[in-house]
Structure formats: C-alpha cells, structure tokens
C-alpha cells in the first residue's frame, strides 16, 4: 500500500500544470501551442519574454519535486524507496501531463527539486557537467542532454559515494540506480525531439556553408 500511496502522491503533485495555468491566467496563451510547445520554464520565458513568469514556473516545478519527496518521508518513516518512487512518478506526470493531453515539460526542474533533498550528489554532478558543456558549446539543449546522459554514468561509476550521500540512505544499491536511471531516461526521452530539430538545423547550416 505504501508503494501505491507514494506513487499516487508523486503523480498528482507532478501533474500540476504550472506553466499552462500561469500563461493562461496571466497572458491568455496556451503554452502547448506556443513556442516549442514545451510546458516548462524556458518556453514560458521565451513565449512571454517575462523573467518573472519563467522563474515562477521553475520554482513551482522545483517545489513539486521537493514536496513529492518530503511527504512520503513524513508518512513512511524515511525509507528511501517511498520518496524515490514518488519523485519518479512526479517527473513522469510532469513530462506527460494527464490534464493537458499528456503534453508537458522536460522534467529537469521537478527532478532537481526532489534531488536537492534526497540525492544532492546526483544534482551536483549534473549541474557541474551542465556548466562545462554550456561553456564549451553555449547551447542549453546540448548541455541538458549531455549532462543528463553523463551524470548517469558518473553515478554508476561512483555508486558507493552515491549511496553515502543519498537521504534517506537506501538499503539496496540497485534501488538507487534503478530510480535514478528511470528518471534520467524519462528526461532524456523528452529531449529527443528538440535534439532532432537541432541536428537538422545544424545540417542545413552546414549545407549552406558548402
């Protein structure tokens, strides 16, 4: 029963469509049909040109992830699997939101909110890699994808350290790796389409230069 309750808590929290509601109420815009169609902070900023709205969406999405970990810890005596499951379902429902025809964001802010409390090691690794790739390529999308993929390999390669700095500490390494992998895979999948568009754009630019 604890597994079901934790999953449901995360799913319901993650499915709150913050960007959709904020843009509808403040600007009368349907974010699923504006800009990239991504229901997240970056597209909210690009569509409205408002830093306040972009930051507000990010913070709400971040808090969704944080709440999805704190509530199960409070309810179920701090076992790792319950907040981890809750966060995984929060990321999933944020990315594939049932209230807006299963459209959604890319899951980074929600995942960061949960990781900030229960798995800061992963968040720090991801952030460091993101900064490195952003400096090298100066492209947010490439930085997002590269850091997401590589941080998973880093966690696998330093699994003992990862377990040590997870809270609550998992009793089983496999659970930590499984949940981390699943969340990062969902985030990666949500980046595939924009990655295809970026590759196509680069090919066109290359042809024009020839």
Please sum up the structure shown:
α3 (41-48) runs antiparallel to α4 (51-75). With 210 residues, this protein is an all-alpha fold.
If you had to describe this structure to a student in words, what would you say it looks like?
The protein contains 11 helices and no strands. The chain is mostly helical and 210 residues long. The protein has one domain. The chain starts with a helix and ends with a helix.
Annotation field: number of helices: 11
Based on CA atoms alone, the radius of gyration comes out at 17 Å
The helix/strand series, from N terminus to C terminus, equals HHHHHHHHHHH
Number of strand segments: 0
For the largest beta-sheet, the strand count, sense and barrel status come to: none
Number of domains: 1
How would you describe the shape?
Answer: globular
User: What is the residue-averaged pLDDT?
Assistant: 91
- The helical percent reads over 70%
């Amino acid at each position: 029963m604890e597994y079901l309750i934790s999953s449901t808590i995360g799913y319901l929290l993650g499915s709150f469509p913050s960007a959709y509601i904020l843009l509808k109420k403040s600007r009368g815009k349907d974010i699923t049909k504006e800009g990239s169609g991504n229901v997240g902070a970056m597209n909210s900023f690009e569509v409205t040109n408002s830093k306040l709205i972009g930051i507000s969406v990010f913070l709400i999405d971040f808090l969704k992830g944080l709440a999805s970990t704190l509530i199960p810890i409070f309810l179920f005596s701090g076992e790792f699997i319950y907040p981890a499951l809750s966060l995984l379902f929060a990321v999933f429902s944020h990315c594939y939101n049932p209230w807006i025809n299963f459209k959604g964001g890319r899951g980074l802010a929600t995942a960061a909110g949960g990781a900030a409390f229960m798995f800061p090691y992963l968040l720090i690794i991801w952030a460091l890699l993101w900064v490195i790739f952003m400096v090298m390529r100066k492209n947010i999308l490439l930085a997002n994808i590269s850091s997401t993929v590589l941080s998973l390999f880093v966690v696998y390669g330093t699994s003992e350290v990862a377990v040590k700095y997870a809270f609550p500490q998992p009793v089983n390494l496999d659970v930590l790796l499984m949940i981390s992998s699943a969340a990062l895979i969902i985030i990666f999948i949500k980046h595939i389409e924009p990655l295809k568009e970026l590759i196509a754009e680069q090919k066109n630019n290359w042809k024009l230069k020839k």
